[in-house]
Write a structure and sequence with these properties.
With 501 residues, this protein is mainly alpha-helical. It has a domain at 1-128 and 320-415. 66% of the residues lie in helices and 2% in strands. It contains 21 helices and two strands. It has a two-stranded antiparallel ribbon. Helix 7 runs antiparallel to helix 8 (207-226), helix 8 (207-226) runs antiparallel to helix 9 (230-248) and helix 14 (321-332) packs parallel to helix 16 (385-394). The longest helix has 29 residues, at 2-30. It is globular, with a radius of gyration of 23 Å. Residues 476-501 have low confidence and may be disordered.
């Protein structure tokens, strides 16, 4: 059993020996005045460390692998491309800046506590009997949640929050507390509906369910375009990829390529729509005249996405280092710390406005924009990232304690991994964790964790209602032996057998 781990360590060492050569080549091509060589040489080994332990794509280190890959995109990709493009950015003085120290130390403590918690012992190894949903329950509940969620989304964005300006959000005040809470809850549960539909489809391989899944993806792309929310447009594809990867332990390469092509083709179109249409035309009119809207967008696409004043690319929009740098430098120059203010919504996560009419709202992104004087538009949202917000609240103690808690919580969820036993409840909790803690890491801290806490509570209630089918030891063994079979995609073990031993 030692050989497979030795192979993974060898892979890790080979990758990290090759990375300095990539940096040297990039520096030779671009030759920027202020290359972040030391920072990248420190960040990449941390972000690739999952290679040492990742034995299954749905095992105990799957969450860590996802997080570390995105962490490098968030905080390292921009510096790597700057190296090749010869770009030097202000504020990165010295071989290692204070911002880069925050990014590296924060990741280090998260890695430490994730590994500590995940190695405490995997409770599912005790082979305790658990219960799962039936396929029919997953299908029926999934369809109900998705339909209710998409209907609530339509009503919310077309008749309540008509655009992203402060004026456009005034419709919320006209709703009753009960209706507001119901609409928010339905939208929160809508992604779970897709997960359950995908689970039912993959369990039965029914072509009709495949058509239903495709229809949900198409409708979400359409809605995401019209309401100018890219996350909704891509969420259908991303949830399918995550669900198949985690439940079956393999990469669905066809879906992955489809998502990549969609991002490459559609993202510039979404950017153009935001620049020339969104906010200027009513969403109901856009939906009723979709063809004319697309013609207008296509005509302006090259103007918006080329030139010195072009819109940001997909990867550029994911870059978060500048936000953390703004916060670190700003607090060093007199901008006060928040001392936990932006984190307070978590304390009232389970107190709906029905019970607390004057429940305070903390629009963290808008506060960042105002305090740090990013733009003059009050409604503009500037993402601080979880790391930046932790530093903004408590400085270094916020980074050390906050990132430790994130790592420990993520590691606890990873102990109940799907490689040790596939159930709907584990899938739902794992994917909600991916969405809130990993993908949501780029946003505000409280909003992500409020959604996570509420979602886990809802999953618990759904489990009590619908998890009736016993999961026996023989079923676990059967799932483990067939988890790498599939129609589209490939089994990791076929290419890298050591990763599944």
């Amino acid at each position: 059993m030692a050989a497979p781990r030795f192979n993974r360590v060898a892979l890790y060492l080979a990758v990290n020996l090759a990375f300095p050569l990539v940096l040297a080549f990039g520096y030779g091509v671009g030759a920027p005045e202020n290359p972040r060589i030391l920072y990248l040489l420190a960040l990449f080994p941390l972000c690739s460390s999952y290679l040492i332990d990742l034995d299954r794509l749905n095992g105990r280190y799957a969450l860590l692998a996802l997080f570390l890959n995105l962490y490098f995109v968030y905080y390292g990709w921009q510096d790597l491309t700057d190296l090749f493009n010869g770009v030097s950015r202000a504020g990165n003085d010295g071989p290692l800046s204070a911002t880069e120290a925050v990014i590296l130390v924060g990741l280090g403590v998260l890695l430490f506590w994730y590994r500590v918690v995940v190695r405490l012992g995997n409770p599912v190894d005790r082979q305790q009997e658990s219960k799962d949903w039936s396929t029919s329950s997953a299908l029926q509940v999934g369809l109900l949640l998705w339909v209710l969620g998409i209907a609530a989304t339509y009503y919310w964005y077309f008749f309540v929050v008509t655009d992203k300006t402060l004026e456009g959000t005034k419709g919320i005040a006209k709703l009753s507390q009960y209706l507001t809470s119901g609409l928010v809850l339905a939208q929160m549960l809508q992604p779970m509906g897709i997960l359950l539909l995908v689970y039912a489809w993959r369990s039965t391989k029914n072509p009709v369910l495949f058509g239903v899944v495709l229809a949900t993806v198409f409708i979400q792309v359409l809605f995401g375009f019209v309401i100018d929310v890219k996350g909704m447009a891509i969420s259908g594809l991303s949830l399918i990829i995550v669900t198949i990867t985690l439940s079956e332990g393999r990469v669905p390469k066809l879906w992955l390529v489809t998502a990549g092509v969609f991002i490459y083709v559609a993202f510039p179109i979404f950017q153009t729509y935001r620049a020339v249409v969104s906010g200027n035309v009513a969403r109901t009119e856009v939906l009723s005249n979709l063809g004319a809207t697309l013609d207008k967008v296509f005509a302006a696409e090259s103007r918006v996405n080329t030139g010195h004043e072009r819109a940001q690319t997909f990867l550029e929009r994911l870059a978060l280092k500048a936000s953390v740098q703004m916060i670190v430098v700003g607090t060093q120059n007199g901008i006060p710390f928040q001392h936990g203010y932006t984190l307070t919504p978590m304390l009232s996560a389970f107190l709906p406005r029905i019970l607390w009419t004057d429940k305070p709202d903390v629009p963290t992104g808008r506060i960042v924009n105002k305090v740090f004087h990013v733009t003059d538009q009050e409604e503009t949202y500037i993402s601080p990232s979880h790391l930046g917000e932790l530093y903004w609240n408590f400085g270094w103690p916020g980074v050390l304690v906050g990132m430790s808690c994130i790592g420990a919580l993520m590691g606890f969820v990873a102990r109940y991994n799907l490689a040790s036993g596939r159930t709907v409840t584990r899938l739902l909790v794992t994917v909600v964790t991916v969405e809130s803690m990993i993908h949501g890491f780029e946003g505000s801290f409280a909003s992500s964790y409020v959604v996570w806490m509420r979602s886990v509570a809802a999953i618990g209630l759904l489990h009590l209602c619908f998890a009736k089918v016993p999961v026996t030891g023989s079923r676990r063994e059967r799932e483990a032996s067939t988890s790498d079979d599939g129609v589209d995609g490939f089994a990791l073990g076929d290419r890298f057998p050591n990763l599944l031993r």
